[in-house]
Design brief:
The chain is α/β, with parallel strands linked by helices. It has one domain (4-333): Rossmann fold. Helices cover 41% and strands 18% of the residues. It is built from 11 helices and 14 strands. The strands form 4 sheets. It has a 7-stranded parallel sheet with strand order 3-2-1-4-5-6-11, with helices on both faces. α3 (64-73) packs parallel to α5 (95-115), α5 runs parallel beside α6 and α9 (270-281) crosses α11. It starts with a strand and ends with a helix. The model has no long low-confidence stretch (mean pLDDT 96). The protein binds UDP-4-deoxy-4-formamido-beta-L-arabinopyranose. Residues 86, 88, 126, 128, 178, 180, 199-201, 204, 216-219, 230, 232, 270, 293, 296 line the site of UDP-4-deoxy-4-formamido-beta-L-arabinopyranose.
């Protein structure tokens, strides 16, 4: 009997790719999503990719009664919690929404899990909890901090899970610290699909490449980096999705929790990303140098070794595949 995995926010960018990876690995995923940052027809495209019906429930993790019904209707073995707000700049403008959705939403889910005797959870965390690390590549043992409500919410969630796990051995948490997820599934049927003007670099570049946006603003070229622009650890979303499967595998097998970076260990600058995307799209991408963006750090990339040691996870797809798959997705996207 395949094990059932509840994916909160499973219709989103990372959630939908994890849905495919879980099906490929023989799991039975169930999606819960309020579609605040996802299109409803993503489930139709997931059915095409997986060749099987998708079980998707529309609703919010803050709705405890709905969660109780889901756990009662489906024998859930583990949960992967993606449902959260994730734009740093927006979190500064809307702190309550970020704290309520990201922190109270996690607590609502944990309460429903406990009522249903389900104690295995993969939590979608972020390298944002490292702020600007003193040492690079950044290890999981690096000090954590925050400099915006989004980063604060992720830090509070991590610390809450640590407290709960320390008090009750039934809980097993996989805390996954993402670096910068980019790219798309090879079919070009699912990918990053921001509702409005993207905050993040690659979806913004993608819209410049399709002509939906006229020019990229490079937020600062006066950082202490080789070309002066910000450096990040970009990881292919298909690799990232596989990391979630390996996290669930490990939790269900051992019952032991883990906290790991999901990154490649390699950093690329903004201008390197522009060049790589120009190669993938076969066209020049107009950009201007603009002032630094508040809250940005200069350079962050992860030490990926612990995920390999504990989960056997290693990123396999490189920068060219990240950009080519993103370009394939945005080129197809306008047709549906
Ligand atoms: C990357 C680089 C920008 C846009 C955030 C969250 C993180 C994760 C990923 C959720 C930086 C530069 C960007 C643009 C630019 N989200 N940039 N022009 O800020 O590293 O991480 O998104 O988990 O938690 O903090 O990603 O893509 O916004 O920026 O020059 O139009 O691109 O300055 O150097 P970031 P990003």
């Amino acid at each position: 009997m395949s094990k059932k995995i509840l994916l909160t926010g499973g219709a989103g960018f990372i959630g939908s790719h994890t849905y495919v990876a879980l099906k490929d690995a023989g799991y039975e995923p169930v999606i819960l999503d309020n579609f605040s940052n996802a299109r409803r027809d993503v489930t139709d495209r997931l059915e095409i990719i997986t060749g099987a019906p998708v079980v998707c429930i529309e609703g919010d993790v803050l709705d405890g009664n709905l969660l109780d019904r889901i756990f009662s209707d489906h024998k859930i073995d583990a949960v992967i919690h993606f449902a959260a707000l994730k734009a740093v700049g927006e979190s500064v403008e809307q702190p309550f929404e970020y704290l309520n959705t990201n922190i109270a939403g996690l607590y609502s889910l944990l309460g429903a899990m406990r009522r249903a005797n389900v104690f295995t959870l993969v939590f979608s965390s972020s390298a944002t909890v490292y702020g600007q690390p003193d040492q690079l590549p950044v290890k999981e043992t690096a000090p954590r901090s925050f400099n915006n409500p989004y980063g604060y919410s992720k830090l509070v969630c991590e610390q809450s899970l640590e407290q709960i796990a320390a008090s009750d051995q039934r809980w097993a948490f996989g805390i996954l610290r993402y670096f910068n997820p980019v790219g798309a599934h090879e079919t070009g049927l699912i990918g990053e699909d921001p509702n409005d003007i993207p905050n993040n670099l690659v979806p913004y570049i993608a819209k410049v490449a399709t002509g939906e946006l006229s020019q990229l603003s490079v937020w600062g070229d006066d950082y202490d980096t080789p070309d002066g622009t910000g450096i990040r650890d970009y990881i292919h979303v298909v690799d990232l999705a596989r990391g979630h499967v390996q996290s669930v595998d490990a939790l269900l097998k051992s019952g032991e929790g883990h906290v790991v970076n999901l990154g490649t260990g390699t950093g690329y600058s903004v201008l390197e990303m522009v060049k790589a995307y120009e190669h993938a799209a076969g066209r020049q991408l107009p950009y201007r140098i603009a002032p630094r963006r508040a809250g940005d750090v200069a350079c962050v990339y992860g030490d990926p070794r612990l995920a390999d040691e504990l989960l056997g996870f290693k990123a396999e797809l490189g920068l060219d595949e990240m950009c080519a798959s993103s370009w394939n997705w945005v080129s197809r996207r306008k047709n549906f």
